[in-house]
Amino acid sequence: MNSTNKGVLFVCLGNICRSPLAEAIARHKFIQAGLDLPLASAGTGDWHVGHGADERACDVATRHGYSLATHNARQVAVADFDRYDWVLGMDRSNLQHLQQMRPAHSTARVGLMLELAGLDDPLEVPDPYFGDDDGFLAVLELLERAVDGLTERIVAS
Ligand code: 4NP
Hints:
It contains 6 helices and 4 strands; from the N terminus they run βαβααβαβαα. It has helices spanning 18-32, 55-63, 80-83, 92-101, 113-116, 133-156, and strands at residues 8-12, 39-43, 86-89, 109-112.
């Protein structure tokens, strides 16, 4: 059993690279682990609202058996802190934004994705947007490890 039923929101800056990849990987791995939870992703910024995922993220996802085909970027909202049990930022800047938005009454677990997944090196998922394809592959591999850790953590909670 696990103590979460409201699920997990993954948050990055643009909601077109890191957090949609985290969501897609979790969608895949949680099902394998028998976890049936709502999953979503959002960005702290609004530049890409309504856009699909970055083409480089789509390509690396497809090559590894995940799909970002239906992704529709959105911005994180105050109501998300009631809608989800876990609100996970990809880097410290995302987390700082989330902590500033978080309503005082919220019981959501808000933290760094990698830290809550039990990883501490690195502690942040690097932003691949201004880099090359290798950066997207590195992010995907890091997020696969992180989702494994998060799955264990949620199953045990
Ligand atoms: P993400 O990457 O936060 O992983 O989705 C980015 C996407 C877009 C921008 C920055 C980071 N941007 O500056 O538009």
